[in-house]
Amino acid sequence: MKPTDRTKTHVIATYVRPARLKGEKTIQVRIGNVQKELGWTNRTPSVFSTLLSKEFQREAGVELVEKTGGPPSGGPSTTWQFTYRVLNGADGISQVTEAAPKGGGLLALYGICADMYREAGGAEAFIRSQRENFGSINPDDSPDDSSSVKGQAE
């Protein structure tokens, strides 16, 4: 996962989602705290630009209302603290689709058919049996409904 995506996912899960669940109207996110929580060093510009971006604000359903504590130059610094207003559906911003936790999503399905394949003699044997039986519905094996159809037609 790219640092930008990791930053967004972390901030949404750690700050935005809990605030939204508690009904809080604003959240404060300090650049240095995010960097520390992610175990990063020398990533201040990346975290700064990600949290400042309109893309993050749209995805998170927040709006930046204030930047405080940074250097006079306005450049990236671990001391910046961003204050966001938490938006809800009524504000025209859709709710965030939460990222699946590590091991969730499609990865949670990993190995789901292992027992079935094992019983069939392995994945290749299972697929071979499925291919052999595909489309092999034999009309002679099904019950003969032609008599009832003939009776209705006459």
Characterize the structure shown:
The protein has 154 residues and is α+β, with helices and mostly antiparallel strands. It folds into two domains: 89 residues; 32 residues, no CATH class. It is 44% helix and 12% strand. The chain is built from seven helices and three strands, in the order αβαααββααα. Strands 1-3-2 form a three-stranded antiparallel sheet. It is elongated. The C terminus is likely disordered.
Question: Could you write a compact summary of the structure shown?
Answer:
With 154 residues, this protein is an alpha+beta fold.
Brief descriptors of the model:
44% helix; single chain; alpha+beta; disordered C terminus; 154 residues; 3-stranded antiparallel beta sheet
Largest sheet: 3 strands, antiparallel
User: Over all CA atoms, what is the radius of gyration?
Assistant: 28 Å
Report the order of strands and helices.
HEHHHEEHHH
Count of strand segments: 3
Percentage of residues in DSSP E strands: 5-15%
Distance between the termini: 69 Å
Topology, element by element:
Blueprint (H helix, E strand, L loop, with lengths): L2 H20 L3 E5 H7 L6 H9 L1 H7 L1 E7 L12 E6 L27 H6 L3 H11 L12 H8 L1
Antiparallel strand pairs: 1-3, 2-3
Helix pairs in contact: 1-3, 2-3
